[in-house]
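Subject: sequence -> structure tokens, single chain

Hey, anyone have a minute? Need the predicted structure for the following. Not urgent.
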Amino acid sequence: MKSGAAAGLAELAEEVHGCFRCPRLVAWREAEAAAPPKRFRGQDYWARPVSGFGDPAARIVIVGLAPAAHGANRTGRMFTGDRSGEWLYAALHRAGLANQPTWERADDGLRLRDAYITSVVKCAPPANKPTVEERDNCLPYLERELELLDRARVVVALGKFGWDGFLAAARSIGVETPRPKPQFGHGAEAALGERFTLLGCFHPSQQNTFTGKLTVPMIDAVFGRAVELAGTTR
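Reply:
Had a minute. Here:
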């Protein structure tokens, strides 16, 4: 029997999967699935919005930008099947938040412990750049996730878009947010009343990891801090 949070998140996931609110994103996610890169030809694509993934009792929530066109848009699970996921799940495994560093398929046995991964926008956007309207269309889903994840105390925002999107969602559900708005940066930390501590982390995109803007010690430091703040034990 599912807990209240688990049942609520499962119901929300079904709603997310059936969303057609943003015509541009619907067209893009389906077009990318219809004409994939050579290495993915012949694979069945998810090609729908991607819901959050992880432990319904999580104390740590990770908020990204959106699914990747040939990552989660292909596999149906957040940060799965692309190089960003390789970095993220390896870091979560090292931090004791994942049972394995596997990241390629939705049926690979990966389980998260005390962590939940979601995104501000649920569909893959062209050039990884959702419009403001598309972000606002999706924010109610993130708001509901935060309400359902009632044990969550630490949020790790992957990139400025995740940082700003989380702050907007938190304000909408009545969470106290600082004024002026805290600025994103790698390792940045902000308290949101008594409910959340927000941590900033550079997004584990290839642009950041290939250039050394984000290194293994840097991402490990952020998740080490998240574990410390959440009181998670391995």
